[in-house]
Write a structure and sequence with these properties.
The chain has 242 residues and is mostly helical. 57% of the residues lie in helices and 0% in strands. It contains 15 helices and no strands.
Length: 242
């Protein structure tokens, strides 16, 4: 039962430029620690040249003096006897604030939410961007090279699509005749319409009876003393047997 499926699984070939493969590569680049620290490593290789009187050096020296053990103990000695006892270290406001600052500065806790959510990426299979990418991949693929161009799928909120839809609505026959919907069901006689009058005029032009008068319908009286009539009578008398 599964022999045909097992044989078919070995013949599947996925194009390297499909949206799923590109998404996997992008996710791999995002979660790669090597790429994450690549810029920092390259910056460290370039080295640095800093003078002793530079502002960062002075700032570091001032910070070192402030955070030195001597200064820290000096402030502590001055503040001895001014503390109010607390039942536990968690209830001490300064210790709680220090613990909170340490937690915020901890790199592991800072990246915990990201590390928990980076493998939970979910993209709907019917998203418009995914559908558009699949259709574009189908059109530019060598396998489906001879498909017609009308199979392009565009996003419905693109400016050209909105403009085309407005142009289609303006040119649509339904929209063009929508103002005549109130005429549906109203009786109307065709007598006197443009098409009927045009047909009657064409019939009159093509009518042979109106265009040409037959000879038998003409009222004609021959003249008896015309030369051709007199000649015809004379010839008839000469040729008559009587």
């Amino acid at each position: 039962y599964t022999e045909a499926w097992d044989a078919d699984k070995k013949t599947i070939h996925v194009m390297p430029d499909t949206p799923d493969i590109l998404l996997a590569k992008a996710n791999a680049a995002n979660v790669s620690n090597k790429l994450y620290v690549k810029a920092w490593e390259e910056a460290k290789k370039k080295g640095y040249d800093m003078r002793a009187d530079a502002i960062p050096i002075k700032t570091a020296k001032a910070s070192r003096d402030i955070a030195s053990d001597y200064k820290y103990k000096e402030t502590h000695e001055k503040e001895k006897g001014h503390y109010i006892g607390c039942p536990s270290a968690k209830e001490d406001p300064k210790l709680a604030w220090a613990a909170r600052a340490m937690a915020l500065q901890n790199d592991r806790l800072y990246k915990k939410a990201y590390n928990d959510s980076k493998t939970q990426i979910h993209i709907p299979v019917d998203a418009l961007s995914v559908q558009a990418a699949k259709e574009c991949q189908t059109l530019v693929s060598d396998i489906d090279y001879r498909q017609y161009l009308h199979q392009w799928t565009c996003l419905p909120d693109q400016n050209d699509v909105i403009h085309a839809r407005q142009a289609y609505d303006l040119q649509s026959d339904n929209v063009y005749k929508s103002d005549l919907e109130w005429l549906r069901g109203i009786g109307w006689l065709t007598e006197g319409s443009v098409d009927v009058v045009k047909a009657k005029k064409a019939q009159e032009l093509l009518n042979d009876r109106l265009y040409r008068t037959r000879p038998e319908q003409l009222k004609f009286t021959s003249i008896t003393d015309s030369p051709d009539v007199v000649l015809a009578k004379t010839n008839a008398m000469q040729l008559s047997d009587v």
